[in-house]
Amino acid sequence: MLDTHHLLSTDLFTFTVAGHAWLNQQWAAEVFLAGVWRAGGWDGIAVTWGLSVGAVSLFVFLACRAAGASTVSSALLTLAGYLVGVQILTMRPQLIGILLFAIIQWVVVTRRASPQRLWLVPVLTFAWANVHGSFILAFVLLGFAWLEDYAAGRATARRVATVGVVSAIATLVNPFGIRVWSYVADVVGNPTVSGRVAEWAPPSARTPIGFVFLFSVLAVFAILATSKPRASWRTVFALAFFALLGMTAIRGVVWWALAFPVLVAPSIQGALERPPTRSLLNAVFLLTLCVLLAISLPVGRGVDPASGGPDVLTFAPEDLVAATAEAVPAGTHVFTSEVYGSWTEFSAPQLPVFVDPRIELFPDQVWNDYFKVSDGREGWDKVLARWDVDVVILHPAWAGGLMAVISHDPAWRLLARTSEGVAYVRVRPLGPRS
Questions:
Q1: What CA–CA distances, in Å, run from 178 to 6, 47, 358?
Q2: Fewest CB within 10 A of the end CB: N or C in the chain?
Q3: How far, in Å, CA of 227 to CA of 266, rounded?
Q4: Confidence of residue 93 (pLDDT cuts 50, 70, 90)
Q5: Rounded CA gap, 375 and 401, in Å?
């Protein structure tokens, strides 16, 4: 899109749905992130991520303060929310949506002190509808605010309702119009997404993120049960909604992590607050921290020798992809584990892949073939032959079944093996693609 100055609306990356229409709802986020990467490389991406997460924490903190918590309590609540949602705060379009959620939440909380600020919401919602499908949560925040003001008979209820209507119209200002709403419904209702994608599965107490999330839910409701005065039923309802959002899918945990600190803030006493003091020691400590941070930027993060990016990159099997690109001609069909699809498209765009993380783009038959091959079930080789696949790049956790059987198949030769998985090439390629 940066090269052509045109919206990408058909698939160019896979061979299973090549040329098919693609409702590229996250186009603005893609343009933004690609621009950052071109301008600053991986360091630019890392700095953008740090600034984004910092801004999210700042607006959660400000919202807690506006909701009535003391400075110290607001800081502790913000930290608690960060610890609950940190594993989801990765550099992808959803993070931009997370930042917009945090800003709108602050605007809504401060609406009585600054009613004119509510008119920022349509602008933010317009941007949100062009970067991530979670934009519908803007209306959840407005809905709870309207319910609270209407029940209390406040004049701001009408303003909130008007802002909600204007914000809904603002979401239609995008290349796809009202279809961005149906896009969200299609993704949420897609059985492949809900049943087979790990981050759309409910959190489990046996995983770190699930344990922390469930513990935080119990802790929050325990605080509400013992707090005086009692929390309103609207607060309890809002907390229950975001808790249910987190219980439905792992990726929904982050919305709970952003919302619960603000919702519970009025129930937290300011007992931890201390009178403000000025201290030379505090200033020295802050200055030292800033210096250490500046030093750590160039030396504190290792560089992955294969990808050239930071060594904290995940799902970036550059050694496997590079070996594949050297071994086969452009246009060769490559079967990759879904989590490796994006990196293959990024690093070797001349090699079309089977599927990638755009789950909703692929029909059920493609996914049935994908899982049959990944599991190494009987007939996997016939599926690959039907799709003219000459190379496979496999993740151990997502394609362990195929890894177990393909190693004994004389029709396939090991191309590369790393800690990230394996790459196999067909001994006798099926021939050039038309």
A1: 20, 34, 20
A2: C
A3: 10
A4: very high
A5: 4
